[in-house]
Amino acid sequence: MRLIEVLGALTFLVVATITVLTIAPNAIRSASGDSPADWSTTESGPVGPADRDFLTKVRQAGLWEIPTGQQAQERASSQRVKEVGLMLAADHTKLDEQVRALAAKLNVKIPSTPNADQQGWMNELSQLEGEAYDKVFADRLRAAHGKVFAAVALVRAGTKNDEIRAFAQVAVDVVMKHMTLLESTGKVDYAALPTPPPPSPAPPK
User: How far apart are alpha carbons 7 and 193 in whole angstroms?
Assistant: First the structure.
């Protein structure tokens, strides 16, 4: 009888453990599988890893696009590239002020330097001028905006934080504007852009 009781208790513990492992994550984790420890609570809603990554990306975009837009005034040969450079620098100056204020309010630490890829692009551009500069300027910036657009759009669609959502809306609009401006230079090599992923398979009928 004792053995039966012990086996019964063990069975209960195994079932309970499986239930917790199976159900609990869906209740406490985000869609990306983040644990509760990755989240913080604010007056405008929870802040998760994707929200912090979004603020980081916006900050780093400004850290290389502002000086690059200014640099284009001296190194570009195309008047349109110079004009677009000024607009990108001006827009990112405003975004940078907003992202720093929001990050401070939500207690999110953001970087003070561009990432490794951005630093590489800046180094590449600093060695060019004229037509060669125009082409690389348009290609690098257009590709970078395409990548950040996808990330910002996902945050805009799924964030739980009201202030992040509002700022993501602003960022989406700016990124869309900048892609269009860069394309207006006539220097973008569309063949070099990454191919969009194939659509998801249709569900079985």
Answer: 61
